[in-house]
Design goal:
single chain, mainly alpha, 231 residues, globular
Length: 231
């Protein structure tokens, strides 16, 4: 009996197998959705074309990529993809409610809609700013995504505030073109992740070494992206 009890008490060891890198998928979803909405902000793509993408590709797919990054113990990727998946879902839901509910539409009548969008983007630009700092620990390409996105969000925030107070939409249009540049950088980074993941012996498309360790002041500060390691 004592032998049986001892055998039952022994833990079962399960080897953790990492999932495939979800970053190229998350970046592709972000890039395409950003391109379509930015094309509208730049005034050459119809308004409603981005809405379905916001729910499913930019929203759900990015959120799933974030969850898979948690599985891979990548705190940076998990935080970035999950947050921007939520961003697209929240924005899509906000616009959908306005379209289907007269009460919601009345609540954001006049300048309230543009002011609401400006504050929404301002809040996300704060999040994006510190992610931009920490992206210097990942690669030049990823840093480029967050840098162009920071410019986009700042331009759109200023543009929506300006329009809400009777100004012209030129800053919003500029934000749209900056968003297109953001999408291009994100698409490149996604493509590099796909082909480099298929070619483990060498990098086919360069993404650039992390900037963090190459700047003396930053290398002394240590890494902002700790990863758990297996015991």
């Amino acid at each position: 009996m004592a032998v049986l009890a001892e055998e039952r008490a022994r833990p079962t060891l399960i080897e953790a197998i990492p999932a495939a890198d979800p970053a190229p998928l998350g970046l592709a979803a972000f890039a395409l959705t950003t391109f379509i909405l930015s094309g509208h902000n730049a005034s050459f793509i119809p308004d409603i074309a981005w809405l379905g993408l916001a729910f499913f590709y930019g929203g759900l797919v990015q959120l799933l990529a974030g969850m898979w990054e948690f599985r891979n113990r990548n705190v940076f990727g998990a935080t970035a993809f999950s947050t921007y998946g939520g961003f697209w879902m929240a924005l899509g839901f906000f616009v959908t409610i306005i379209l289907v509910s007269k009460t919601a539409a009345a609540a954001v009548a006049g300048a309230n809609l543009l002011n609401g969008l400006a504050w929404f983007l301002l809040a996300f630009s704060i999040f994006n700013f510190y992610m931009l700092l920490w992206s210097t620990r990942v690669s030049v390409a990823v840093c480029g995504v967050f840098l162009t996105l920071q410019i986009t969000e700042c331009l759109l925030t200023a543009g929506f505030f300006t329009e809400a107070h009777g100004g012209t939409p030129w800053l919003t249009h500029a934000g749209g073109w900056a968003g297109i540049a953001t999408a291009a950088v994100a698409w490149y980074t996604s493509a590099a992740g796909v082909i480099n993941g298929m070619s483990p012996e060498r990098n086919v498309l360069p993404v650039g070494a992390p900037i963090w360790g190459r700047l003396p002041i930053l290398s002394r500060m240590g890494s902002p992206m700790p990863r758990r390691t297996e015991a």
